[in-house]
Amino acid sequence: MLALVAAACALVEPRAAPGCACWRRVVLAPGRRHRVGVQLALPAGVDGMGAAELMRLLNRAPRGRGRWAEDEWTRLYEGARDRGMLSGFGSVRPPPLSDAVSTGSLEVATGLAACAFAPNASPPWTSACAALALMCIEVSWLVRHGAPSVWPAALSLAMFGLWLDQTLFGCALTLAAVRTLDPPTHARFASHEAAHFLVGFLLGLPVTGVFMRGRLLTMKPPGVEVLAPDVAQPGAHCGALTDAQLSRVGTMLMAGVAAEALHFSNARRGSDDVARFQALVNAARPDWGEGRALGAARCSIRNAVRLLAEYEDVHRALTAALQAGAPLGDCVATVELSLQQREVPRTSKTKCRTGRT
């Protein structure tokens, strides 16, 4: 039904970029050990797995109530990196964090107006009005064909379809409607989430989930989950975080806003990411005040822009993988393959120079 599709778009649009879901727990209660149901250990023999086996393991990583513990995720990624299978994980050192970045210096460094980085989501009234218009068209068509009591029937059927999609199909129908009716919105969303994924991966933050097709039996919107061990580990205290740790987290959180500004000229989503970073900075540096905290946020945006510009080809490949609905392991493999292809031209040029010598 047209009304079902329009109402689905109205539900998804205001919440279409959740950022990293685990950050809501970490920021609101820093230093606590957050558990979601039963936390499991990694399967036996994971330390001896090859690259293909590791990617298959990530593809079927447990979700929901029975999931791997946070330290197990860290051990998995770091162990694979040490064995040479995830050479890109943690390959970039956290950029310096400054609390004195002004609006002007941000514009000079990025070549974009500062307002491009201010999340400005289109109001939900737009989608709501579109849904209402399509509902009226549908009702008018039913009335012309002699269908009695069409208003209750149409509304009930639309709401039932939305509930069915949320509970049984993990928002798959809703996302298919968004992809079909508004491809630019879906591309923007995929680019936003790919930036969180890529920047977190490069800075050594384990990516623990990819939910581009929605989450089964929940009302949560799709997105990616990135873990920050420095904040989430037992006994962690935000006041003890170093500038490098804050920079790593902040750059990851601001990557979505930076990606939208770079590729779509403005950021529509990411206000929750900005709020989470501000909450983390306020907890870690309570003496900074609002002005210095905003300077740190601008610095994180600048760092994210530079990383995404340097790894633009990797970000583009990951965005395509997310748009296609690739699972976590396939996305990690896409990043690794893209990073390896970046090294091939450099190696070839070096060999040519050596041959001439």
Give a written overview of the molecule.
This protein is mainly alpha-helical and 357 residues long. The model is unreliable at 1-37, 123-127, 215-219 and 345-357 (pLDDT under 50). It is globular, with a radius of gyration of 22 Å. The chain contains 15 helices and 4 strands. It starts with a helix and ends with a helix. The protein has a two-stranded parallel sheet with strand order 1-2. Strands 3-4 form a two-stranded antiparallel sheet. Helix 9 runs antiparallel to helix 11 (243-264). The protein has 2 domains: 18-37 and 47-121 and 184-349, no CATH class; 124-179, no CATH class. The chain has helices at residues 2-12, 22-28, 51-59, 70-82, 103-110, 124-144, 150-168, 172-181, 183-202, 229-232, 243-264, 271-284, 289-310, 312-323, 328-356, and strands at residues 38-40, 66-68, 207-211, 223-226. GO terms for molecular function: ATP binding; ATP-dependent peptidase activity; metalloendopeptidase activity. Residues 1-16 form the signal peptide. Keywords: Signal.
